[in-house]
Amino acid sequence: MSDDDLPAPRNTHFDRDKARRAARHPDRPGEHCKAEPARYRPVIDHGKCEGKSDCIAVCPYDVFEVRKIEDADWRPLSVMQKIKVFAHRKQTAYAVRADACKACGLCVVACPEKAVTLVPARKPL
Known about the structure:
It is built from five helices and four strands, in the order H-E-H-E-H-H-E-H-E.
């Protein structure tokens, strides 16, 4: 993949080499950065996420941030998931700017824990 195939990043933590590797991944889902913004949204499984920030490094649209898990996301986790999240300083990813997502799928294949999925966004009623 050449630099011309990746969109100009809005993310100051963007890692072009990681993004290139993710772009070549055979299991990459989504529409390869061609969807309209907010047509899809990334969903993070907080029981799997270890807060390693790979989603941040590959997302050209600055959709993610890693921070302390919120109580509402902590409570439903199983005991084993809570231990895992606690061991990683209770850090997890959040799609705080999901409305900017263009369904690249880079975050999905870059996540070492497979904690990110892309789902079609619901249309307003």
